Structure formats: structure tokens, C-alpha cells
Amino acid sequence: VNTGQPGTLPVANKEAIRLSAMVGLALNCQIDEWSKFDRKHYFYPDLPKGYQISQYDQPIAKDGYLDIEIRGATQNLTQNNAETKIKRINITRAHLEEDAGKNIHPEGLPYSLVDYNRAGTPLLEIVTEPELTSGEEAYAFLTEIKNIVKYLGASTCDMEKGIMRCEPSISVRRPGETTLPKYKVEVKNINSFKFAQNAIDYEIARQIEILKEGGMPKQVTMGWDEKNNCTVEQRSKEEANDYRYFPDPDLPVLQFTQIYLNELKNKMPELPAAKRKRFKEEYGLPDADIENLINWKEMAGFFESVVSEIEEWKLVDISGDWDINIAIKSAVNWCLGEFSALLNQVQQNPLDSRVTAENFAELLKMIQKGEISVSAAKQVFKVMFEKGGEPTSIVEDLGLKQVSDDSVISSAIDNVISSNPKAVADYKAGEQKSFGFLVGQTMKELKGKGNPGVINQLLKKKLE
């Protein structure tokens, strides 16, 4: 079976079968007791043995569904708590088969190449009912599928490396028609969700124009030309009977007992839909923040570890002079802002970073308690990211501890007021900009370490 690179898993590998069953369960599919492998006969350069090991009439999983949230899947994610619509997409089947190789068509050259390294490795193909009606819905569906598969640990889903692929089939019918058209156009060679959305929307528009002119779109396989943002015809589309399926004589029939399926269910992690709901209920986060966390599994895990540390800090710190809800909101802002930016620069995951959840939480606590300013905290965090270490030690080493002592700040304000009589007079005359100037001068007097909140409070009192 394994015609690929040494060390890769053959399609019938036990682990591949187990993970495929888990994906089926996560998609609310029916897992029958018996499943089998078939041979799908065709010849292409990327699978030269003349057939593909696949599943035909007894797939591992069938008759499932996935609920997706439609809320401007790509355009409107920045709108917090936007109105959402839940749409159920029925899953026809999820079957395991061997992957083919990869055809490479060098631009401007009169030949093609074939990379056989992935040929023979396990590929789970998920087929939906024809219920997605736009590129936007497809984008939302693909994103949810990717998250589910990653949360299960079944795949890295790296589309750029071809580990996850999307091949939409598109057809158009006129208003009032209830049956499916007699044709469908499949689009291949799509390596991003955005391109999938664009390809679907392009094909819908192209086919509508053909129908308006009285024609009928051909049943063909198209490729997506990302440079010109259009589909390109590749070859005619086969029917199922062209493949001459029959049971694979070399592979045994699979049996899934109820005991085995129950074990898989018990081992399943929290899936994206459940995590999404819990983040909303427990933390009260905006929808956009929740989606950004859900879409980065490792960051969602790191965020929860930070929250756990924050909760422990709150239990230890009995003075109660800091708000845990503000700290949690600060945690998500830092995770999706400063931390994500640094991680993306070095192509790293949060769990591989030198920044620990404990030190992260401690830094957030220091900011909220006024022990360090936000700008100084960014300097500290960069050191934590590059070298590791505890924020308290780094603050001491860099001399960034914020001055909050009333007497020290009061003395600095007295100096600023006596040195800037015109600004004081302008403020008393109603010039509000002068107040900002005096705050800046006080901060300068304190070498940038003054607590802004204390400065503002004391300066107003003195000016009054």
C-alpha cells in the first residue's frame, strides 16, 4: 500500500483508522459496525499503479452534520458580538483512502513533474450534502472542520503543504427548481480558504452567465488560477461508475464495536463549539476575540493557563486591589496582540515560547496594580520572550519600576507647577491641553516612571 516516502503510514494503518473514526464522531456521524476498503480504478500520473485504495459503499463514517456560524465569516470578524446565524450542514460521509502524489506544473516549461512522497499515506475525505450556498458559508465550514481536526490531533491541517485540501463542486439552479442540476463543476488546486471562497463565488457568477445566455455549463474539473483570480478548465469530470469499484482483496474488513466507540468518545477533547460557548459564558469575551483564540488551538490553551494563574494570584492576594475580570480581558488582549506578533515573527507556537503562563500572569498583575506602566511592560515582555525570566527581576534589572508614592509624585508636581506658571495660568483659564502638558512634564521629572493615575489625581488637586 505504501508507495510513499520511507516511514510514512500506509492507508490502512490502525492509528489512521482510529483518528478517522474520531473525526466521524466529532461530526455527529453514524459509525457502522462494519466498514471495508475498495479499489477505485483509474490511471493518472500521480497514482501510476492504476487504482486507488478507497472506500465506496461502506465508509467509516456517514450521515452526520456540522453546525456553523455565519456572521460575515471573513469580512465582519472584527465586529464584536455581531449577530450570528447557525446553519446545519449535513455530512454525507467521511471515508479513508490513500493519498495520491502531487503534480507540479512549472510555469513556462513544456513538461510537468510528479512528487510521489505523499502517495499511499492516509487521507480522510469528508463529503457534504449540497447545502452550502456561497463562498462565505464554505469559508466558515472549512474553518470549523480545520479546528475540529486540529483539536482532535488528527492532522496539522497545513494547507500550504497540501496536508488539508478543499475541492468544491459547484452547480447553479434557477429559482423555484428543487432538483439538482445535471452537471457539477469541481475546482481543484486550492491551497487556502480564501481562494476556496473566491473560486466558489467566481464559478457561481460564471455559471449564471452561461445559463442566462441559454447554455448549459459543462461537467468538468477546473483548476484555480490565483494570479488571475479565475478558474481554468483541466479535464472532463468522471462519473462514479467510471471507476469500477470492487472490494480490496488484500485488506481485511474493519469492525467497530460499541465498546471501542465509547472509548473513543470518552477520550475526545473539548471541541471548538463547546469551547466557544464556554469562553463566552465564563470569560464574557467579545466574539471576535473568541474566534481568534479558537482558530489558534495552542494560543487558546495558553490563554487558559494564564487565566488559571490569574485566578491563583487572586486567591493569594487578599488585599483585593485588582480586578480579575480586567486581568482576564488584559490577558486576551496581550495574547492576541503583543504575544501573537512576536510569535509570528519567529514562526513559533506559544507552548514553545520562553514565556511561561505564570510569568505572563504576574506581568499582567503588575500592570493592573500600577507597579509598572504599559509601555514599560512591553519592554519587559520582549525580554521575557527573547531570554525568559520573571518579570519582577527584569523590572529591577531595567530600572522600570513605576513610582506610585504620593509624596515623591507630589514633590515632582510642585517643581513642575513652579517651573511652568504660564501653563498653570492657561489651565485655570480653561485651556485643557495645558493639563496634558503638565502631566508630561511631571512624567519627565520622574524619568518616565510615574504612575499616570496618581499623577493625574494629585495634579488636579494641586491645580484646584
Description:
The strands form five sheets. A four-stranded mixed β-sheet has the order 9-10-11-12, with helices on one face. By secondary structure, the chain is α+β, with helices and mostly antiparallel strands. β6 (102-104) and β7 form a beta hairpin. 44% of the residues lie in helices and 15% in strands. The longest helix has 22 residues, at 324-345. α12 crosses α14. It is built from 15 helices and 14 strands.
Write the topology of this structure.
Layout: H1 14-26, E1 34-35, E2 38-41, E3 51-54, E4 61-70, E5 85-98, E6 102-104, E7 113-115, E8 122-128, H2 135-152, E9 169-170, E10 185-188, H3 193-212, E11 220-225, E12 230-236, E13 246-247, E14 254-255, H4 258-267, H5 272-283, H6 287-294, H7 297-316, H8 324-345, H9 357-368, H10 374-387, H11 391-398, H12 406-419, H13 421-428, H14 433-445, H15 452-463
Helix pairs in contact: 2-3, 5-6, 7-8, 7-9, 8-9, 9-10, 10-11, 12-14, 12-15, 13-14, 14-15
Concise structural overview:
This protein has helices spanning 14-26, 135-152, 193-212, 258-267, 272-283, 287-294, 297-316, 324-345, 357-368, 374-387, 391-398, 406-419, 421-428, 433-445, 452-463, and strands at 34-35, 38-41, 51-54, 61-70, 85-98, 102-104, 113-115, 122-128, 169-170, 185-188, 220-225, 230-236, 246-247, 254-255. It is α+β, with helices and mostly antiparallel strands and 464 residues long. Residues 1-8 and 73-81 have low confidence and may be disordered.
